[in-house]
Fold these 4 entries.
Entry 1:
Amino acid sequence: MIKDYTILSFFLFFLNLSLYPQEVRIFHVGDFDLNGKVKSCLVITDYGRESFEFNEEGVLKRTVTQYNDSDQDITYYKYDGGELVEKRMESYKNNTLDASTSMANFYTIDTVPQRKVLEKIVSYDKQFLEQQVYQYNEEGKLVRIITSNAEGVDETTFEYTPYKNEITVSTFTNGILEKSVRTSERKTKKGVQEVILTKEYIDGEPNRATEEVFSPNGKLVTSEDFLYNVAEKEFISQEKRFYHYSDGVLDKVVTKTVTTEAVEEYIFQFDNHQEKNWVKQIITPNNTYITRVITYYPEKEETQQGPNDKK
């Protein structure tokens, strides 16, 4: 199920994914809060613009981040047999390719005896930057990432701990706990909610946490931030956000702390496509906005056979 992160900035989407070692991931139309056979989506905000292009199967094939008229980053994705085999990030400054900051990622997939992915990263000026080996268990879950670069070799391991109706995934870097994510279920009168509790650690010691609650249809209901209090030896709530919807569309977000309460209201405009997508989002009272220019692949017309047609 794709979680509804409508308010998440597209510019922060990949940044959030890069905070911790992750398995190689293929992105689809639905990951960007888009519906239908989307060909491209240009996202325009008051702080920049970014475009996403997809193939006819809905898989991301190119992104362009435009910083100004002369500076931009372009990322290309190449697939083979449903696997990501190459990713290229080209950085342009003053309309000129910067070979030192542009890089290519090459992926080699081995599935015997268990799945293993080798990723090599080199710059356009032919400097080796990094190599990562992703190892999976018999169930197809990522269990280890070995990273090699000029600074040495690091090992990231993932432990999966099931307990009743929940599972916790713990991330260790060179044996030191870095993050844990516990996914559990909570029964309510409206159905079963999913609760995701993420804890972050520094040198193995608890630092901060976030708890997200999702409705049975995948809508984000609440999100709460915590900081660890060393003296009290517990996580203390800092801020909690409540998400309200109208006809399935985000209507407002109420943010509460111990001493304050703030309300942001969301206004959406939708296109006329069969599978509607929003094309403008306005957030009041600050009147910030996001505009999306969306193009679609033509829908294939289905032909029906008449009773006298030859078979």
Entry 2:
Amino acid sequence: MTYKTIMPELNVQSGAVIALRLFDIAYSIDLLKAESLWMKKVGGSISRSRLSSAPPKALKFDVPPVLLPLGSVSLPVGSSTLSASATARLYDFGVIAIALRVPANALNWTDYTYLCNAVDLAIGPNVDTQVWNLLVEKIRTVLTPAMTRPNESPLQEDHLIAVVQKWNEPVKGVELTDLVDLIPLLTGDSRPLSEKNRKDLLKQQFSYFEDDLVVVTWDRAFIYEPYSDSDVADILEVANAQLLEFRYYDQLLDEELPRMYELVKEARRATNLLAPRRFADLARKLYTLVAEVTELTEKADNVLHVTEDVYLARIYMAALEIFRVPTVSAAVDRKLSIVRDTYAALYAEASGSRGELLEVAIVLLIVIEIAIALLRHAV
């Protein structure tokens, strides 16, 4: 079995390693209020995110998220301490995406790969580090008044993005997989992969010009972009934000469904006089749950509108598939359907029980009237 040879003379002149971690911190965030609070209490330059190269009509945010600067962070990476610039992006459906960007300049490919893996080992998803929590707490301290129903959800999403902007010599994107071995960077594994797994891992490749390349995997991505264009990284972040939001509501519905079944049983055990009210109250609770989940999942589903930019649209749709966003979204829809059906059944039972009580009341009134009439006649 033959593996591609790493070309030692091919060096990364300019690049970065971006570690993303996303948190669901609230039901929703008032972005206008968040901007005002941040400017008042922290200051600095904040902005509404937009894709830098895509025309606004081709690909745009439904509600542009707010980008906040968080300053520099010291990261213990291996035996060194590196400086990373930190930013946070706020989405109106309650998700924040924190990015730590570690510059990578004048490194040969082996050292660049080592840096990517070292960053992941230092602050990746399987590492108990306070860096992320401190940054989240900084955001919460300032922006809690702009949040609707803040939460402490343990759910998180992570993604590592390796970015190269310039090599030490001209390189075509299609040549890169022959000139450098992307596998250790995309997997974090030092052991050689089977040929089939190598092909599968490199399957999702995208290029628009001769001198760019994007490779997307489940938890990592490689981006060669010589024009300092951040659109692909932003799109990967959006896909991760959507995944986190759908995972949150999938878990929420998993917890609510057993509770819902118990409440239905309790309502049905109630006496006939109390049953209509119990059914109606429970139906209202379920309707509220359905309305809230539907509203937020629709916001997450429509965060990015793709119309004319075919290249970015392909990357976006591929990322959604790789991250299993449609699968989790479909699971949420199925569970919402169960809740809707239960709501409809409870509403029907409540209406039926009220009808029965009304019929009983009418019969009783008729009997009372007959009894009064007979008593009067007897007297």
Entry 3:
Amino acid sequence: MTRFSSILETVGNTPVVRINKLAPAGIDLFVKIEAFNPLGSVKDRLALGVIEDAERTGALKPGQTVIEATSGNTGIGLAMVCAAKGYPLVVTMAESFSVERRRLMRFLGAKVILTPASAGGTGMVQKAIELAEAHGWFLTRQFENEANADMHSRTTAKEILADFAGQRLDYWVTGFGTGGTLKGVGRVLAKERPETKIVLAEPADAPMVTSGTKQERNADDSPASRHPAWKPHPIQGWSPDFIPKLTGDAVDAGLVDRVITVAGADAMRSSRELAQREGILVGTSAGASFFAALQVSKDAQKGSTILCMLPDTGERYLSTPLFGDILPDMNDEERTIAQSTPTFADAAVAGVSPPR
């Protein structure tokens, strides 16, 4: 289908792509590239799912303001959905997340309320709850909302089943932000493809699931406090400073067969390798998931098939350390190439880029 009645109909049906150069010999390694969603991340699914569920149930009234706490991708997805459907949107976001995320949300018409970096994810959630209660706004509650996981069961999981129908699928690898992908896909795979091992990846600096320590929760299942195993980490979009209810549900249900911790440096290196050796442009969280998939492949039997989720696009990270040594101007090697022919050679010597 190539004609759609609105941008919202383009959410989902993202491609599964074989990894050719980075895959170990004897392993069939695939990635599901969620950057193909219209606003560039897996959270477009969540955004559409929770808004349409709220419309069906009457929890969201026509013209009512929507509010959510977000590291960026959910907010961007919600901004798309709210723009298309006509709802005002306010998001709360810790100031530590990338500048391009807040600019994208504002460009889409959302209001972005920044919270102190020191308050982390729990702080931005607390502010969103407070604003919702004060103004009568609809809080989407992405970290606890079952409509989040349900959307992934209906779409992401069904796409995976169709793409691997009649074929091996030995491992499915994912990280977690809200846990919606993990719970929604995990429970479908457990039922329909019980032979598939589910591998969860999380930051080495914030090994909350690995620690085995339960998350303290309020009566509404929101986090009561920061998880004791959490520390600041560079993998944006992964692992807020608490274990979301949806993630906890999946772990408690025994859906997760293995947990792998990933260092920030390994995540960023894997993102670059995907870009420079496979031509796949993704962000730090995708690089982290891919690194975990490579770890799985080391232990997997020859002939195994692994599918790894890649949650978003690398363009969302231009102001972060992922692009820290990618210069806007020519480096020495590029200047040498520029000087190898006469046109603009003097400008290259001066270190100035040719006129655009």
Entry 4:
Amino acid sequence: MTTSPERGLALVTGASSGIGYELARLFAADGYDVIVTATSLDGLQSTIEAVSATGVQAIAVAADLTSYEGVESLVAAIQGVGRPLDAAALNAGVGLGGYFVGGTALEDELDMIQLNAVSYVHLTKRLLPDMVARGAGRLLYTASISGTMPTPYETVYGATKAFVISFAEAVKSEIKDSGVSITLLMPGQVDTKFWHRAHMDTNKLGLGEKAAPSKVAKEGYEAMKDGKDRIVAGMTSSKLIGNVINNLAPDTVKADLHARDAKPDSGLEQ
């Protein structure tokens, strides 16, 4: 199967599972050919099958977005398709839980900053100019309600998401009359592999209720289609925290509330 210039072309990063997998399916259902990327092609097989089943093409790209060279290789693959990119969901990201002092490793935190924040800047810098020149395009950034509060025991993770929120809003202000939209997807807890990979299986957040990734992706995708500024997605409790509490409470209070639920082993306490 070859790509069709009559179809739109979309990009989804972090597309191997979770929210990214669901976003890829949504783009495909709307008739987009979809460029899907993750660190390995093996991890993308289920996504490729789901996208291809709709009759569009899945273009799989293995790229390590924690490195400059990895991001550049993805950009080259996008350009190699030979068609303009109509939409991009920058979704790749990881978490990391634990004690900042005496717990988490600096190398892991720096890799997380590269993936969760630097790659978003890098890809936006490469992809946005063409969209602005055409006067059309949609960008969806997966952030988090964690970006609206200090996040003890996820200290660096929350900071990366705060960066994404600030960055997206600043860029959007600069291009507000360009015809290109930027939407922030800001979920709370989502039922994905995030918690295990972040070593957060035993805290209250990791063991607590979570939203289905299909629900979160759908809410974000619809907000992107509507050109909305942002959407706090997922559970009703997440919407309350993201839309109300975090807009009213001081940072010290928000930090203490988050620490209570994110502290290692807090979910095992009686």
